[in-house]
What does this fold into?
Amino acid sequence: MQTIQRYLIKQMVIVYQSGYHGRNSKVYDRRLTLHRGVTNPLTFTFKNEDQKKQDVSAKTVDTGNYYQLDIIDTQSKKAVITKTLKPIDDGSTVSKKGQAVCEISDGDLLGLDAKFYNYSIKEIKEDGSTIVTYTDTSYVAGGTIEVLDGAYPEFVGSHETSTFTLTTGPLPRTSSVIDARPGINNNKALHTIQVYTTNFTGTLRVQGTMESDTNTTNWFDITLDGQAKPGVDFSSSSAVNYYNFNGVYQQIRFSWGNSSGNTGSVDKILYRQ
It folds into this structure.
């Protein structure tokens, strides 16, 4: 049996409000890391040059005097993430004195490359002026932060299908082929669709294939959870409906058709594995 330890620790950074005065010099500033796929909490402790924690309980946006974190691209020199720090210092609890926090979510990291960035924290005053803070007692204002891939699964956005062409599908209108990403799924892979309709009376079918050729003709119907047979029947539907199905497929597609005399439509379908 493999026994593995995991550490429940905070990423905590000491921030200095003034520079080096000849003593208590901090010689090592730990690099911060941000992981895709999860929320990354960060805690900053504000001290003066004598290593004494400072009261930051009133440093809030409401007062107009607060701390701001900027994560900066090392090439463009532009801020790619900006966060306002929230004090957890309540003015009386010793263990929380000088501390302020923020969270970097998976959504914040969308569009950012996995690489090193710089970060800085500045104090914004009531009149809009800014005051520098330091990562150490040697007047260094910037720190290093690294965005990492691979430790956690990343958020995968929904695939939107809104074009259905007249084809030789099982029903008159059929979507383009969608990659079902079998390489990241297992035999219990859950798929979810969200179907948007307008005055639609008719039938919707979901089909799958085990072939990777987008021009394949070898499609089979998929029975959705809660349905007794393949296909979902709608009657004068102008709504958003959700359906799930399970299984591993190479590709899927959607096909729908109106009942006789109906002119409604399936407007779009959102799909997520």
